[in-house]
Amino acid sequence: MSQPDLSRLRPRQIYQAMEKAPIAWIPLGAIEWHGWHAPVGLDALTSSGLCKLAANDLGGVALPPLHYGAYASISSHPWTILLDQEDCDILLRLLLKTLSRLEELGVKHAVILTGHFAAVQGEILNDLKEAWESEWRAMKLIILNPDSCPNLPIAPDHGGLFETSLLKSLEPEMIDLSELSDEIIEETNPAGPQRRDPSHPLYGIIGADPRGLTESHCKEIREHLLTWMIDEVNAARS
Fold this sequence. Notes:
Distance between the termini: 27 Å
Order of helices and strands: HEHEHEHEHH
Oligomer: single chain
Helix content: 25-40%
């Protein structure tokens, strides 16, 4: 069982966690269409689940997930709410404010894990790290993006086999593959424009077909990412 996020902890529980390890785990996500089989909050659910597991293993507290992310090519898909280009500074300013307050509260390491892989999201996080490190800080910032995790058994995607397997490993009841058609598909490009056609059986899914999911995929991806997160944070703390 993973620990609950910060919003569900009483003050004494927070102080006890900080005494063990003054780490804040900050999960980022988005509200996006991921296919008929997955929730629109998938990105935040996966990053939050991993952060809570990491906090369980390494200590610290996991903050509630932030569900707003930067725009991407699927911005016009149903039930997708992403920040437009002119609004992306909102996310940067919000994260800077959060980090500043955590530093004041005695946190020594802040770990941001994004479950939203859009290229613009990565650019915002790069800008955030540059802004944070532009002056002396008592708190170290660590930014983790699964896109940069080495040797992943499945490449990161959008609603495909990677994201579906990861969420299935964390909250299995949130995935329902029976919502997808059983139509056989022959494609050479699983990220092609056909996946943006509402009539396509895998509409809005950019990546490997999630219907190929196996329980071993789920566990392998979760444990690989969790080990990577803990190793990265331990290296930054040494």
